């Protein structure tokens, strides 16, 4: 580990959780069930033979086979987006030492949305790469702004101050998004579903564009995991263990912004996935970031895919956008977590 820039000497390495293998097997089974459910459930249920035809017989051009192929790209995209948001939430919580940090709660998603909507209205952007570049810029600037506001005053960046700063910033940026869209009907028509978060329009081109950002974000998150364990003990202890805390926060924050910004650009501001995924894994497995980050990716993929399927079933013959479903589930959980004394710090 000495080759990594965030370390100066031997790192801090907790033991492997005893239940890791069991949790991994259960998550893998749930992931398989989610994939199957996403392929066969919806306003038009798919039979097993229709599923096989759509997956393994490309020459068949029936309606059912085309529905299956469309759902394959949608399922892959929802898995990738859920994994990205799960890791982003875990990294944000670790960097800020705030157990209720999440891209949506801290306003990062809204900042990305503002830049994308502004790009459409004023710069006539139309490609996925342009969406992602603007979303990353908006997410990064918003993250710096919220953390700066939350760090002011006595006590520094406490969980409560960060949440309040994020909520205020998100409200202000949402107003700007609305102000840009209302007089421009073409912008509103183009992104009225995107605003609440959706994976329904996913295609393989979007997945190909999104994949490099996902890989880079995951790699940056993985190389930060061991040092983040030390950071949880406090900056002074982490420095004593050889962690370069400034470089660590920069790398981890960059990974979080890459993941949530790219996701927001293509799927819209889907909220609460990072919060739910990370809290579930921390509750089951403990605080070890070496396992929290990969397991948050898996649980985030599961939660988002389940939410997408539930939106299809609840809204049949249409569908509820996945952002509505995750907000309905996540908002009460956020209230419960915010009321606990344990949210003061990690």
UniProtKB/TrEMBL annotation:
<keyword id="KW-0813">Transport</keyword>
<dbReference type="InterPro" id="IPR037294">
    <property type="entry name" value="ABC_BtuC-like"/>
</dbReference>
<protein>
    <submittedName>
        <fullName>Iron complex transport system permease protein</fullName>
    </submittedName>
</protein>
<comment type="similarity">
    <text>Belongs to the binding-protein-dependent transport system permease family. FecCD subfamily.</text>
</comment>
<keyword id="KW-1133">Transmembrane helix</keyword>
<feature type="transmembrane region" description="Helical">
    <location>
        <begin position="291"/>
        <end position="314"/>
    </location>
</feature>
<keyword id="KW-1003">Cell membrane</keyword>
<feature type="transmembrane region" description="Helical">
    <location>
        <begin position="251"/>
        <end position="279"/>
    </location>
</feature>
<feature type="transmembrane region" description="Helical">
    <location>
        <begin position="20"/>
        <end position="42"/>
    </location>
</feature>
<dbReference type="Pfam" id="PF01032">
    <property type="entry name" value="FecCD"/>
</dbReference>
<dbReference type="GO" id="GO:0022857">
    <property type="term" value="F:transmembrane transporter activity"/>
</dbReference>
<feature type="transmembrane region" description="Helical">
    <location>
        <begin position="320"/>
        <end position="338"/>
    </location>
</feature>
<dbReference type="GO" id="GO:0033214">
    <property type="term" value="P:siderophore-iron import into cell"/>
</dbReference>
<dbReference type="GO" id="GO:0005886">
    <property type="term" value="C:plasma membrane"/>
</dbReference>
<feature type="transmembrane region" description="Helical">
    <location>
        <begin position="76"/>
        <end position="94"/>
    </location>
</feature>
<dbReference type="InterPro" id="IPR000522">
    <property type="entry name" value="ABC_transptr_permease_BtuC"/>
</dbReference>
<feature type="transmembrane region" description="Helical">
    <location>
        <begin position="132"/>
        <end position="150"/>
    </location>
</feature>
<keyword id="KW-0472">Membrane</keyword>
<keyword id="KW-0812">Transmembrane</keyword>
<feature type="transmembrane region" description="Helical">
    <location>
        <begin position="162"/>
        <end position="182"/>
    </location>
</feature>
<feature type="transmembrane region" description="Helical">
    <location>
        <begin position="106"/>
        <end position="125"/>
    </location>
</feature>
<feature type="transmembrane region" description="Helical">
    <location>
        <begin position="210"/>
        <end position="231"/>
    </location>
</feature>
């Amino acid at each position: 580990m000495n080759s990594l820039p965030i370390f100066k000497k031997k790192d801090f390495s907790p033991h492997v959780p005893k239940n890791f293998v069991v949790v991994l097997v259960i998550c893998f089974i749930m992931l398989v069930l989610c994939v199957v459910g996403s392929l066969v459930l919806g306003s038009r249920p798919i039979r097993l033979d229709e599923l096989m035809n759509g997956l393994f017989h490309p020459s068949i051009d029936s309606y059912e086979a085309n529905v299956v192929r469309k759902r394959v790209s949608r399922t892959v995209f929802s898995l990738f987006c859920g994994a990205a948001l799960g890791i982003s939430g875990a990294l944000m919580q670790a960097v800020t030492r705030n157990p209720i940090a999440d891209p949506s709660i801290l306003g990062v998603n809204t900042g990305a949305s503002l830049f994308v909507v502004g790009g459409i209205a004023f710069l006539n952007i139309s490609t996925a790469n342009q969406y992602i570049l603007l979303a990353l810029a908006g997410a990064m600037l918003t993250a710096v702004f919220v953390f700066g506001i939350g760090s002011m005053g006595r006590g520094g960046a406490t969980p409560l101050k960060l949440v309040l700063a994020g909520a205020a910033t998100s409200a202000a940026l949402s107003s700007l998004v609305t102000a840009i869209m209302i007089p421009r009907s073409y912008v509103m028509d183009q992104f009225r579903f995107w605003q609440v978060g959706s994976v329904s329009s996913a295609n393989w081109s979007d997945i190909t564009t999104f994949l490099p950002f996902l890989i880079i974000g995951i790699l940056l998150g993985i190389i930060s995991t061991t040092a983040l364990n030390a950071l949880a003990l406090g900056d002074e202890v982490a420095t004593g263990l050889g962690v370069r805390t400034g470089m660590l926060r920069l790398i981890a924050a960059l990974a979080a912004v890459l993941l949530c910004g790219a996701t927001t650009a293509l799927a819209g501001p889907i909220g609460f996935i990072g919060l739910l995924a990370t809290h579930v894994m921390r509750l089951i497995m403990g605080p070890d970031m070496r396992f929290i980050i990969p397991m948050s990716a898996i649980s985030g993929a599961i939660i988002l895919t389940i939410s997408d399927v539930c939106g299809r079933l609840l809204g049949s013959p249409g569908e509820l956008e996945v952002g509505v479903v995750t907000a309905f589930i996540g908002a009460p959980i956020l209230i419960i977590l915010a009321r606990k004394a344990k949210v003061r710090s990690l």
